[in-house]
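Summary of Year 1 activities. Much of the first year was spent building the evaluation harness for sequence design. The harness presents a backbone, in tokenized form, and records the residue chosen at every position. We chose the following record to illustrate the format because it has been used consistently in internal testing since the harness was completed.
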């Protein structure tokens, strides 16, 4: 075998070695099943007699939003939402607002991703006050209602937060919670740390992907019947 034939042989071999991994990636990407990371479920869980796991789910609520309308879980069906708890007259309101503006802006065009804040001072935070606040915070949104701010009887709000988010002192918290479309808690974050807000933003995208995949699979199952 002359030098020219050897060069062709080695060139072909190198080409095959580089091409084979690419072909495998394409094959498994097209023919294989797609698996995505999923977020954990937070809160206590139980096991049924049949061995099925039942995850913790938050209760319904009935408070009033910044438009003066009744607002509860029915209004959040099919939505992913980030829950937060603070009054608009907080001495840290600029920092709180700045942190929440990150996911607020990142998902401004997504109709199924919302922010839901519960006031910790309902005497100050009337619907009119909350509307002025949310209008300012969401003025660059592509869709209305992306940030819901809830008020009502403060004792009822505090009791709801304590029971459903397992926070013993709602009036002194910087926690935020990611809730999926069915009312399960899928993320919890200490908002005092900026890195946790970035985590929340990434988790919201991951949760949306998980739900979109489930909806697609359900649609495929229904169409094949």
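For this record, the design step produced the sequence shown next.
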């Amino acid at each position: 075998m002359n030098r020219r034939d050897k060069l062709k042989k080695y060139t072909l071999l190198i080409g095959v070695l580089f091409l084979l991994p690419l072909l495998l990636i394409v094959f498994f990407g097209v023919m294989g099943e797609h698996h995505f990371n999923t977020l954990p479920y937070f809160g206590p869980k139980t096991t049924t007699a049949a061995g099925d796991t039942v995850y913790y789910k938050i209760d319904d609520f009935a408070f009033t939003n910044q438009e003066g309308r009744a607002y509860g879980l029915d209004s959040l069906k099919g939505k992913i939402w980030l829950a937060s708890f603070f009054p608009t007259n907080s001495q840290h309101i600029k920092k709180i607002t700045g942190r929440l503006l990150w996911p607020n802006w990142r998902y401004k065009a997504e109709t199924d991703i919302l922010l839901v804040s519960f006031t910790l001072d309902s005497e100050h935070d009337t619907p009119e006050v909350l509307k002025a606040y949310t209008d300012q915070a969401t003025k660059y949104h592509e869709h209305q209602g992306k940030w819901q701010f809830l008020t009502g009887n403060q004792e009822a709000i505090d009791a709801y937060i304590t029971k459903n988010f397992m926070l013993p002192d709602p009036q002194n918290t910087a926690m935020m919670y990611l809730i999926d479309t069915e009312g399960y808690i899928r993320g919890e974050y200490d908002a005092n740390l900026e890195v946790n807000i970035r985590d929340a933003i990434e988790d919201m995208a991951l949760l949306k992907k998980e739900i979109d995949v489930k909806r697609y699979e359900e649609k495929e199952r229904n169409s094949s019947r």
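The two ends are 62 Å apart (CA to CA). Quantitative recovery figures across the full test set are reported in Table 2.
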